[in-house]
Amino acid sequence: MPGEPKETDVTRSYGELLSSIVTLLEQGRQFAARSVNAVLTSTYWLVGQRLVEHEQGGEERAVYGAELLKRLSRDLQTRLGREFSERNLEQMRQFYLGWPISQTASSNSSLPTDSNISQTPSAKFKSIDRPHELICEMLERVLASRTFSNAPNMGKLLEFCVQETISGRRQTQVAIAEILNYREFDSLQHSNVRREMGRLRNKLRDYYDQEGASDPLIISVPKASSKVGYCAEFQLRRSASRESKNPRYLQLVCEARHLWGQRMPGPTMEAIKLYEEAVREDPEHAASAEGGLAECYCFMALWGFPPRETVPKAKEWALRAITSNPEGPPAYAVLAFAAAVYDWDWKLADEFFEKALTLNPESVEVHCWYASHLICTGRFSEAIEVARTAQSLQHDPSVVVLSHLGKVMYVAGDLDHAFDLLQLTLQMNPNFYLTHWYLGMILLDRGNVDVGLDHLRKAAELAPESSGVIASLAYALAMLGQRQESLRHLRAMERMREERYVPASDFATIHSGLGDLDSAFAALERAFLEKCIHLTWLHAWPPYQHLRCDSRFAELSHRLGLGGGNGQVARSATSLS
After folding, report:
1. Lowest mean per-residue pLDDT among 144-148, 209-213, 217-221
2. To pair with 378 at 20 to 30 A between CA atoms, which of 27, 61, 346, 475?
């Protein structure tokens, strides 16, 4: 056809494009090894620029443009590695199109070489104006957010870290102490600085989980030794989500997250209402609200609401959240939870957890979910390791998280560490039921009967609607010979079941303590039909260990996909007897 480019021209043009992109990427990798990773961010933006300008270089190129990314991906992966998929190249292209800030670097510009520039981050930033402008624009957006406007000291600290990094300097603890207005820096303030930097990391995490979910660039300040000093990092988001910027939506999500953080049924049901209202407010951009709903329904199942009513809703909202934002780790963790405790598909659960941890290897919440999953499958030593990792990632300790980790370590057999964690949470909040619940169980195991029972009774007082707490108290009383009081709690739970759903597994706990094995297994059979969440802790939950010698235990374990039940026991419950 007239005007159609010759194949040799197209081939030559493509070869030039491929060569220029390979050069960009190789130089970007070299400099990333010695400087802040904003250099790679600029590299990816420039790759996107090359792609767009190549597509726009002539109308005829549109004829084969659909095949361009596929061909480039194949050739780049051959030369540079598997990370250059068609999807990643398209994201680089979209990154350039989405942020067309004017820049001095032309289409013919390249990254600086060793021969023409000094080895300071500031010099590298000056040679390519685009990264500097983008980082500053993203910093302004973070500082103007509600997350940071309510914490001016954190904003001041973040701005200092970013500006110092751009200038090519690392931030020492002494310099940070000055920003924090410490009058004199001494050895005690080393820990204060680390704590404040931990708080900053948590603030950034909260921001990017909510208001900053659609930001194309993520700012972080990783851990560092006092000798090396701190340095901000800048990472291009692999897939920017379409999160709402509607002020009303953001307010609803923030209020819902606060309510859900209390981990009690009443506030969680209020959180569900707020999340649903947020979805209605902006249904096309509601990834955070959808993910929040998935997590809320999981908690309701764990508390003791009917699994067949709650877990399917958790799965539905998790899938909607992933559709809105394929890179959201909590939604994959919810799907993993549902695959394990509801579908009993342990392999699929492992795959979902692997995906969630790959997306965010520093997520405290995902590590907590995963530790519980490892308990289900009898991998107790791994569960302890994952729980300790979660604890190390939490720079601003949370009573909810620490109590959960204490519970995991208790059933996994690390009683000393569990006791220390729960004592810490008791100091932080003396009125959280989960803390008293598991402190009571640990102290009873250690033979401290009076104090242990006091903690269990306190847990029942704080959470009178929790059948799990009541069952544990009744179990302990039965094991200690206080049979009549144990039976009184059993009758109370039977009356409770007439009014609402009560997990059958809780009845199995009490009957095990009373030594009524037939009633215990009858309750476990009901739990199996109910798809009771806590049934998946069959091998770990201490009261069930009295049932292990019965052949019905192994048969039930096989039906759950957990093996014959003759593996390692997490811990012994004999000290109660």
Report:
1. 209-213
2. 475
